Structure formats: C-alpha cells, structure tokens
Amino acid sequence: MNKRKTGADHERQAAEYLTGKGMRVLETNYRCRQGEIDLIGRHQGYLVFVEVKYRSTFDKGHALEAVDYRKQCRICRVADYYRYTHGLGEDESIRYDVVGIQGTEVEWIQNAFSHIYTHS
C-alpha cells in the first residue's frame, strides 16, 4: 500500500465532497518550508484551510482525533505564510476545517480550531 497515493486519493475525495457542499477549492497540497496544507478553498466568505485525515478502521482511533495541537500549530504557520505570499491581510476572514474520512464515511468539521499564533 502506497501511503502517498492513498492520501492523495482521500484528499481528492474530500475536495469533491467539499465542492459538492459549495466550497471552491483553490489549492491542493499547498507546500512551503513551514509545512503543508491539504486543501485551501473559499466557502461562505471565508478563506478555508482544510486538513484531511483518513482511517480505514477505528483501530487507531477516529480520523478527526489525528489533528492534534502540534499539527494545528503547523497548519496555522503554513496559513500565515500563504496569506503573506498572496497579499492577504489580517482582515481576511479565515477558517480552519477538518475532513475526517473513516472507512467510507466523510465528516466535515467547519471551524474545527482557532488560529494559533506561534513564534517559530
């Protein structure tokens, strides 16, 4: 099993799901020195940074539980860099969402966590 291909397949599944719910996907697998964000889109006036997590079973817990504080900090640093490089100011409305795919079930948590300000 190729983990990268599996991840890409589920990120594509999440993008299709979100598009069907009205999100306009702007970027997939955005990467920079600070890290990576699975999906970036626009939804209901927000610039949305989306983390996608997949678990085939519950053996390792729920997919949504995998987005811990450390991961949230990394996502926020990447989001800050994205906003900076795209000329988006502090007044831009942003949101952090998580899509958990557990087996065949898709769960979308909007505004899953607040922005975390880091100094690194």
Report a brief summary of the structure.
With 120 residues, the protein is of the alpha+beta class.
Describe this structure in words.
It is a single chain. By secondary structure, the protein is of the alpha+beta class. It is built from two helices and five strands. It has a five-stranded mixed beta sheet. The longest helix has 18 residues, at 3-20. The radius of gyration is 14 Å and the shape is globular. The termini are far apart.
Number-wise, the strands total: 5
Distance between the termini: 34 Å
* Total of DSSP H or I helical runs spanning 4+ residues: 2
Radius of gyration: 14 Å
- What share of residues is helical? 25-40%
Give me the side-by-side strand order of the main sheet: 1-2-3-4-5
Strand portion, in percent? 35-45%
Biggest sheet architecture? 5 strands, mixed
What structural category do the secondary elements indicate? alpha+beta
Shape: globular
Mean pLDDT, all residues: 88
Helix-strand string: HEEEHEE
